[in-house]
Amino acid sequence: QLSGKWFLVGMASCCSYLAEHSHQLEATTVTISVLDGQSLAISTFRKLDRMCWEIRQHYLPTQAPGRFLLKGEGDCSKVGVVVGEADPSSFIILYYQKGRSISVKLYGRSSLVSDAVVDKFEQRARAVGLSEDVTYYFPTYGFCDSADEFHVLDGEL
Q1: If you write DSSP's letter for every residue of 11-46 in order, what string do you get?
Q2: Which long-range contacts (CB under 8 A, 24 or more apart) does 33-39 make?
Q3: Out of 59, 77, 135, 152, which could bridge 72 as a Cys pair, Cβ 3.0 to 4.6 Å?
Q4: Tens digit of each residue's pLDDT (9 = 90 or more) over 94-104
Q5: Whose CA is closest to 130, among 104, 92, 96?
Q6: CB 66 within 8 A of CB 83
Q7: Cα 54 from chain centroid?
Q8: Do 128 and 104 meet the contact criterion of CB atoms below 8 Å apart?
């Protein structure tokens, strides 16, 4: 159900890098493929220094439905990913937890989602202590569809 192309619409996070660089946010798309019926292959396409990059990640399933694990280098860099709410035809809200910090992301099947969906996203962000001050919305134009072989980051976060 989650397979296919998604647009990153918004993100709520206390990440200091995001706060300092929010004026430089780039339009971002994600393509999700379901592998072996359980794990997810994620390809993120975004611009960096005016070049299109692809970042490939692998979300591993956990025992609980709708929960995944993104492994990085070492035990400290594991990121828990939880599907908070989804309507596979229009939007998905994902939670990312690394240690004690939580981020919430809103993806849409198009770069624009309804006000009702934005309200749901903002409510979910507030519920985990993320205010409007740390909620960012991404551009709705300038998307990358692909990256050449020299601009692919393969592996974990």
Answers
A1: EE---HHHHHTGGG---EEEEEEEETTTEEEEEEEE
A2: 33/3, 34/2, 34/3, 39/68
A3: 77
A4: 999 988 899 99
A5: 104
A6: yes
A7: 13
A8: yes
Q: Whole-prediction pTM value? A: 0.90
Q: How are the residues of the chain apportioned to helix, strand and coil, as percentages rounded to the nearest 5? A: 20, 45, 35
Residue 131 is encoded by which pair of tokens? 């205010």
The DSSP code for 62 is -
Question: Which residue's structure tokens are 């993806």?
Answer: 107
Q: What is the token pair recorded at 64?
A: 């609980």
Distances (CA, A) of 91 to 42, 53, 72, 85, 124: 16, 24, 27, 8, 14
Domains in the chain, please, with CATH?
4-148 (2.40.128.20)
pLDDT band, residue 157 (cuts 50/70/90): very low
HSE (CB half, 13 Å, CA atoms) of 16? 0
Radius of gyration of the chain (CA): 15
